[in-house]
Amino acid sequence: MIFNSFAFVIFLVVVFILHWTLPVRHRWPLLLVASYFFYMYWNVAYAGILVVSTLIDFLLGRTLLASDYEPRRRMGLWLSVTSNLGILFFFKYYNFFQDSLVAIGSSVGIPVTPARHAWLLPVGISFYTFQTLSYSVDVYRRQLAPEKHLGRFALYVSFFPQLVAGPIERASALLPQIQAPIAWPTHVTLMRGMSQILLGFFKKVVVADTLAIQVDSIYNNHELQSGPALLLGTVLFAFQIYCDFSGYTDIAIGVARMLGYDLMENFRLPYFSKSITEFWQRWHISLSTWLRDYLYIPLGGNRHGAWNTYRNLMLTMLLGGLWHGASWNFVIWGGLNGGALAVERALRTGGKTTSGGGWLKRLLGVMYVFTFICITWVFFRSQTIEQACTILGRMLTLSGELQIQDRSVLANILIVLPLLLSFEFLLQRRMDVHQRFAQGPLLMQLGVSVAIVLLIALFGVSAGSQFIYFQF
Amino acid sequence: MRRLALYLFLTVVATIALDRSLGLFLEHLYDNSMVGQNGGDLNRYLARSRPDILVIGSSRAHHHVIPDSLSSSAYNLSHNGMSVAFQAGLVSVLAQHDAMPKKVLLLHVDPEEFLLDQAGGDIRFLRRYYGSVPYVTDRINELHPLERYAFWSDVHRFNGMVPGLLRTWWKPATPEADPDRGYVQRPDQPMDATRTIHTARKDSINAATYAVRWSEERVRDGIVKPVHHIDSICRARGVTLILFTSPRYRTTPAREAFDARTRSALGASPRWITQQPSELAELRDIKYWRDNVHLRHDGARLLSGHLAAAISQPDTNRTTTP
User: Fold this and answer.
1) Contact residues, chain B, for A458 at CB < 8 Å
2) Are residues A155 and A210 in the same domain?
3) Can you name the residues that pair with B244 across neighbouring β-strands?
4) pLDDT tens profile A223-233
5) Does the pLDDT value for residue A38 go beyond 70?
6) Which of A208, A437, B41, B164 could form a disulfide with A244 if both were Cys (CB 3.0 to 4.6 A apart)?
């Protein structure tokens, strides 16, 4: 089930009403059933993988990882890591490595017969695998007591607002909320949730999906596009992927809030960052902090000298790139970001946000980050490395004239994108818009809500498109 | 919770009120728009007298068929990028407005369209007629079980059209100010030859990739049905329906074989005119092409002449396979 569908709206209304009318002790079972229904709406059989993943980490947490005997605990961790990553590898990377093996074999004259499987990639597998993995590691590190209740643990893994595209919640943050009786929400809490849901829908259905039409028409015929057109397509893609993913996150956080749960923030106006280091503190925060805590720091972090730090940064971002998809394009995308992080660190500009300085310095910083990130998005959006290189080459030389194919779509973009940017500007000015909405007069709440609903009806792309991050 | 309920109730009431008002306003804009493919071209056609011959189809009809070449009373009401599902909806709108041509309806079809598993989603471009033209309403409802609920909103019927309507509604395009009768001549560009070679190569790779699949694929009932719907409307009004294909700069055996299968699947009626480069020797010259499937104006003139000749001939191409 996708958020931007009528089915989800109906599902949410039913779950919301049942959740707040049922006795407290029946709420978590309701959410568990709802979460599995939400997942099985896409594919019934693949819910089995979710069950297996849940059972493995729950049982390991209760047995080996809870042991006082260090070798048993190590064994538990090893089993959790290999089983979780094994499932992820099989579904997501097996075919990719087969293809790479065939390519390498043919380049050195050794014929390799590929043995690909035809299984679909389970939606959200990268997200819930990382979530269960972090639970096991936290239990192993004794930072978290093992969960004793299978049902509640299953809800932690499958909680539907964040199941298929995050935020990747830590067990230490979500499990206590599931264990504790949920407090009756205040009007302000509910309205905050409502405003975040509305904003998320606006970002996804109105902005991201409209941008997608223009971006797809440029990238799908990139061979025929001029440099300026490719540049326009790439800049629009930067906004598309931001609105798509942060729109999903807004809906997820808003829905969870209306059900009485707090999910972590996943985006903090990343395109206003003044360094790549800062960008990664503001973009997909749940993933970047996960990579920091469970990969970068265990690799040694910044504790063993400059070169080891650069190596660790690079490795973390390369694997972070590969997490996004089984393609060398994502690896390059991660590598570029890792390289930038290392260079910034070497130049001593990384590691902390550059909040000081005049407006010109801040502006230049923002422009540098946006330009660099747009270059990396070319690899992210392209199908092949060859395609990315062609696009970059033409884009950077700005060869040819700008020709717009879908003028009506561009006109839609010119109406809705400035609306969103104005809103983001308010957020940048540190105005808590959701809080103001929640605490504001009823007339203002009505005006904003009706305006957003009508904008969605008028400008929303109604074909029920997928969220980009569902594929990861 | 009570305040939330009050907020939700008032939001619903205010949304409905504003939605209805805005819907009326947009309907006014739409009905007065006489320019562009956001309904303007259709309104302009509806405002004029019925032609003898009407051409409908995608860009390959819009930019290929010059009405003057066919008859002094011909009109081109093609819409770029639209499939046969949209054309069936369009013909239903025309029939309801008593605006069918007097003699011949020329419908452009792309045989490849008949084997793709597409849901006919471009009928949504006629969503303005949801609720007023039953065929359009039914087909939109079939797209998704919940699709009909989106039309609780009046403004949804104008989804995605607002900038186009605002741009065109004030343009005073009278039905007479349409010298080419729907045909739009696109300016030639220096890149045309390069684009043609490039898209021909891409197209042949595509055809090679799908050749096996195409040979095994059956013609989709879902795509054939709209053609039969158009045929039934034409029969009821004594209009001759002629399907025509348009050539490619480079075609492949797999594509040509599929042309024949599609033609066979559509049955003896309606009449079918294929136009392959093999039948149009002049069009092998790249100077006539804009890309692998679109002609420049000079090419369109040649093709229109060929089409006019084919229409005037007796129906020797009629297939006998049901």
Assistant:
1) 22, 155-156, 158-160, 162
2) no
3) B108, B273
4) 778 888 889 88
5) yes
6) A208
| pLDDT at residue B91 in the model | 96
- Nearest of B149, B91, B292 to residue A7 by alpha carbon: B149
Q: Residue B22 to residues B168, B236, B265: CA-CA distances in angstroms?
A: 18, 38, 45
Distance CA(A250)–CA(A424), nearest Å, equals 13
Q: What is the value of pTM for the model shown?
A: 0.77
Kindly give the parts of chain B with pLDDT less than 70. 115-119, 172-177, 210-222, 267-270, 272, 274-279, 314-322
Do B15 and A411 count as a contact with CB atoms less than 8 A apart?
no
- Given CB atoms, is A445 within the 8 Å cutoff of chain B? yes
Nearest residue to A409 (alpha-carbon basis) of A232, A223, A247, A225: A232
CA angle A442, A446, A452 (to 5 degrees): 145
Nearest chain B residue to A458, by CA: B159
A365 and A393 share a domain?
yes
Q: Are residues A302 and A408 in the same domain?
A: yes
Domains: count for chain A: 2
* B99, B49 contact by CB (below 8 A): no
Residues A249/A267, Cβ–Cβ less than 8 Å: yes
Q: Could you tell me the residue range of the domain that residue A164 belongs to?
A: 5-109+119-184
Which of A222, A284, A324, A434 is catalytic? The answer is: A324
A322 and A389 in a single domain? The answer is yes
| Pairwise CB contact (< 8 Å): B1 & A190 | yes
Per-residue pLDDT of A57-84, as tens digits, reads: 999 988 877 788 888 888 888 999 999 9
For A365-383, what is each residue's pLDDT tens digit?
889 999 999 999 999 999 8
Per-residue model confidence (pLDDT) at position B136 = 94
A464 inside domain: no
CB pairs under 8 A between A and B: 84
Torsion, Cα of B78, B83, B87, B88 (10° steps): 170
Domain match, A291 and A240 both: yes
| Residue A132 counted as domain residue | yes
A42 shares its domain with A161: yes
Answer with the one of A165, A184, A203 that is the final residue of a domain: A184
Residue A472 lies in a domain: no
Could you tell me where the DSSP H helices lie in B65-191? 67-70, 84-96, 134-143, 147-150, 162-168
Are the CB atoms for A167 and A249 separated by under 8 Å? yes
Q: Is residue A465 part of a domain?
A: no
Q: Both A240 and A346 in a single domain?
A: yes
- Which H or E run contains B104? strand B104-108
The verdict on whether A324 is a catalytic residue reads yes
